[in-house]
Specification:
Layout lengths: L8 H10 L2 E6 L3 E6 L2 H8 L4 E2 L6 H4 L10 H5 L8 H12 L4 H6 L1 H21 L3 E3 H6 L1 H11 L6 H12 L5 H24 L5 H11 L6 H32 L1 H8 L5 H11 L5 E7 L3 E3 L2 E3 L5 E4 H4 L3 H4 L29 H18 L4 E2 L21 E3 L2
Parallel strand pairs: 2-8
Antiparallel strand pairs: 1-2, 3-5, 4-10, 5-8, 6-7, 9-10
Length: about 400
């Protein structure tokens, strides 16, 4: 895997042509595997003998993974993404209270209000920049970051720092010292957030998690609290940030598909779903581990192997989505669902929120700025320095 990331689709197509499962070399010469084919990935994600706990990561348990390994946080952070069985059920049940359909729907007016205000900021940034503004900086980032931080009760003073640290943690091209420093500081900042909410509880998820911990005598341990907050901050804004960025980029470079939405032949929700499939916000997500040797599509994945879930590859698998799987089509038949939000017990808990944020963002953005277009050629856009996140680092747009 290229630690510098970049656009994954050409490499994915080459790997898929060879099979649904591939052997990969992770940073630090760590041997792993990736499941790329849609059907194989769907089976893998729901397989009862595939675990999330790093207790099943053979190389880690053998002491072969050094401190500062750039992907170590994905394996060792304490939270529901690294828990199995009863622990996973306990942690997920605590979080699910904040993501009920009723509570998500109650957020809609606030999301619409926040979106409208950010569009004002985008217009001002463009006015100051000769008609050009970075949509990622002024719109796609502060929307999901603002929503998830309000949900968690995180003060605005922490937003910019938490985004920077999130970027460091999901990066795959940084050195051990940077990785350790980013994780240390993230724990410190989230510790400050938890302490503030413990002293002054509010109507937010962090306060609720602390109350659950205290009332139930340690039901949520301090490391689990910090790990859960870290998961929520990173997953709650990085993925939606990429989703909005990728959707705007796709619509600007596929005007025929944009016209289908404007004419009412497709919806903004269709654009969100097609972006999730065609240009998944997460390219390869770490990790899962077979608890015994398993075979998928004729390839054996040995017990204890760290496995990447290849969402960006699965989304363009012609075996699942037809010969035009590499085309962006908002009117595509959605009988066969994409896997970009997961599958099985670890399906993304925040999926309804991400969909609401992205749909609201696209509708308001293009309603207010119907002539919005990229200000540079798409090939000039710098990509993420990670094979985990899949997007560009900036998105300069001209509003009219």
């Amino acid at each position: 895997m290229d630690p510098a990331g970049g656009c994954p689709h050409a490499a994915n197509a080459r790997l898929l042509a060879q099979g649904a499962v591939a052997s990969v070399v992770l940073p630090g010469e760590v041997e792993g595997m990736a499941v790329l084919g849609h059907d194989a990935l769907k089976e893998f994600l729901a397989h009862p003998d595939v675990a999330k706990s790093a207790a099943h990561f053979a190389a880690l348990q053998a002491g072969q993974i050094p401190e500062g390994w750039p992907l170590k946080t994905f394996a060792t952070v304490q939270g529901m993404t690294t828990a199995d069985g009863a622990d996973h059920k306990r942690l997920r049940s605590l979080m699910s209270r904040a993501f009920t359909p009723r509570r998500i729907e109650a957020l809609r007016p606030r999301i619409e209000e926040l979106t409208s205000g950010l569009l004002d900021n985008l217009a001002r940034a463009a006015e100051a920049g000769d008609g050009v503004a970075d949509l990622r900086t002024h719109f796609a980032l502060p929307l999901p970051m603002g929503v998830i931080c309000e949900l968690l009760g995180v003060d605005e003073e922490h937003h910019a720092r938490l985004h920077h640290l999130s970027n460091q943690i999901v990066a795959t091209d940084i050195g051990p010292e940077q990785s350790l420093a980013a994780n240390r500081e993230m724990v410190e900042v989230l510790g400050q957030v938890a302490a503030a909410r413990a002293e002054n509880p509010g109507d937010d998820l962090t306060s609720a998690l602390i109350a659950a911990r205290d009332d139930d005598g340690g039901r949520l341990s301090p490391p689990e609290l910090i790990g859960t907050l870290m998961l929520m901050i990173i997953a709650g804004h990085e993925t939606t940030l990429n989703l909005i960025t990728n959707a705007v980029r796709a619509l600007c470079t596929h005007r025929d598909q944009f016209d289908l939405i404007i004419s009412g032949k497709a919806s903004w929700a269709d654009a969100v779903e097609e972006t999730l499939r065609w240009d998944s916000p997460v390219s390869f997500f770490p990790f899962r581990y077979p608890t015994r040797d398993l075979t998928f599509d004729g390839t054996v994945i040995p017990q204890g192997t760290p496995v990447l879930a290849g969402y960006s590859a699965a989304g363009r698998d012609a075996g699942a989505f037809g010969p035009d799987a590499d085309r962006f089509r908002v009117d595509r038949d959605r009988t066969n669902r994409h896997l970009s939000l997961g599958h099985g017990a670890h399906y993304c808990l925040g999926a309804p929120l991400a969909r609401m944020e992205a749909t609201t963002a696209l509708e308001q953005l293009f309603t207010r700025f119907p002539d919005l277009d990229l200000a540079v050629q798409e090939t000039e856009l710098p990509r993420h320095a990670s094979f985990v996140g899949n997007s560009v680092q900036r998105l300069p747009v001209r509003l009219s």
